[in-house]
Amino acid sequence: MTIALAAALAIALIVITRLVHAHRASLEYQRQTDPLTGLPNRAGFEAIVEDRITSDIPFSIVWLDLDGFRRVNELHGHASGDLLLAQVGPRIQRCVRSGDTVARFGGAQFLVLLLGHESAPGITSRILNSVSASAGISRYPNDAETAAELLLL
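The structure assignment produced for this chain is given below.
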């Protein structure tokens, strides 16, 4: 094998390796991201919660279930419902701090991971002034000690 051929093969191998890594990263992003909102989905949020539990830092999870969402789909169709979901995510994000996480958990459910406990009621109130939803708050480690328990509350 000539030096030129060996160099070309080495470069090709490097390019292929980078493409494979980029493809895997893209697949992982798609697996953990809601396509309508660009927010973390259930799998992405669970991974974030697991990571926070590992770091043993107290946090709160705000559960949000949009009011009247089923009616929007029934009256105006699923395309309108999808448009509404895409608009709700940014509205919620404007109510939280940097470092907090907003996710679409599925259907008309959004979850917000807030660092600490003290700010949860105030931020939840701010969110509810921005979107019409039912809300609940769970706290780590006060209410549960595992991601599965927290996400069942």
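Interim note for the steering committee: The radius of gyration is 21 Å. The chain has a mean pLDDT of 89.
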